[in-house]
Specification:
Radius of gyration: 14 Å
Helix content: 10-25%
Largest sheet: 7 strands, mixed
Amino acid sequence: MSLPRPTPVFAPTPDPLTPDRNITHGHFQAGDRVVVLKGVADGELWGDALRVVAPSWHTPTDEDGWRLRDATGGAQSYFTAHPRYLVHLSRRCPDCLIHVRAMEDVLLPKYTGDVLIDCGWYTTTALNQLVHIADARGGR
């Protein structure tokens, strides 16, 4: 039995790495398990675990994206995201491991203790498109 996580504490924090990450659409494939990193929980990075479903145009960046499925369902079971937002869970690829380690170096020293921190990097548009704050047009 898993216990529910507490409500995240919203702590806007700069993300100096993801907006400049150079990961192409071809880095992922349908069926891959991925995570969208969102912050820190109990001394580790945390985020939403998702499954890559199909190619999809990512309107906020005008680039190829991926349609993702959230197995937990909810209001947005499917949405589209840019590849640079994604990190592999289903395999240990060097590019994703390097990104995770760099994110750990930036974030983990800032947040310690038993708290769940949402760094406030993402929002979802009315078209069910996940968008990083650095990619938002006109604030949305």
